[in-house]
């Protein structure tokens, strides 16, 4: 499991208990026990004399996601974030910055720009995408230069998570693939 946002690690499984450390977005944890909405975890990246496996404590279930779902879960924490050209944070992010920051949080190095991301990932045949794959778009719809990228979140309904750079919404959204965007879809890929 991985943290999908900055998450508290508490001494006991209850709100208001003493915070003993925090998990950073993408930080891996080992889960040892569940008690209601709380998980007893150890954080291997945080060495501690308290436990040879890593810093121990309790964290809310809602703040963690399975490894295979963690990149999209982290990207979803950006929902509503304003589109900012060149942005990489919750203060403002662009489309490729959303992809870069989400993968970076789980320790996967991907290029910064959409065109470089399209060149570096493993190609996926359109129609065979899985959640977490990427869709790439070109203004002319012919793929001469990729200018936009978004996460595939539900291939069956053509739903994507992205930071639109134009149109009525200039903030991170998860939405069915708009017709105007579908006309410019040129490829899919996987990291």
From TrEMBL:
Keywords: Hydrolase, Protease, Thiol protease. InterPro entries: NLP_P60_dom, Papain-like_cys_pep_sf, Peptidase_C40, SH3-like_bac-type. SUPFAM superfamilies: Cysteine proteinases (SSF54001). It comes from the Bacteria. The keyword Cell membrane does not apply. Residues 65-191 form the NlpC/P60 domain. Belongs to the peptidase C40 family. This is NlpC/P60 domain-containing protein. It comes from Nocardioides marinquilinus.
């Amino acid at each position: 499991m991985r943290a999908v946002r900055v998450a508290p690690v508490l001494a006991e499984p209850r709100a208001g208990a003493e915070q003993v450390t925090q998990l950073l977005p993408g930080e891996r944890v080992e889960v040892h026990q569940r008690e209601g909405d709380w998980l007893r975890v150890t954080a291997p990246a945080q060495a501690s004399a308290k436990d040879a496996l890593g810093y121990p404590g309790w964290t809310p279930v809602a703040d963690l996601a399975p490894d295979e779902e963690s990149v999209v879960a982290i990207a979803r924490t950006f929902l509503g974030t304003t589109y900012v050209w060149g942005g990489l944070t919750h203060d403002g992010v662009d489309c490729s910055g959303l992809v870069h920051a989400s993968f970076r949080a789980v320790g996967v190095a991907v290029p910064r720009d959409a065109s470089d991301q399209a060149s570096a990932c493993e190609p996926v045949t359109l129609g065979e995408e899985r959640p977490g794959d990427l869709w790439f778009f070109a203004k002319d719809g012919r793929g001469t230069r990729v200018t936009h990228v978004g996460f595939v979140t539900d291939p069956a309904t053509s739903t994507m998570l992205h930071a639109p750079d134009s149109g009525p919404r200039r903030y991170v959204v998860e939405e069915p693939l708009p017709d105007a965007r579908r006309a410019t879809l040129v490829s899919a890929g996987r990291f």
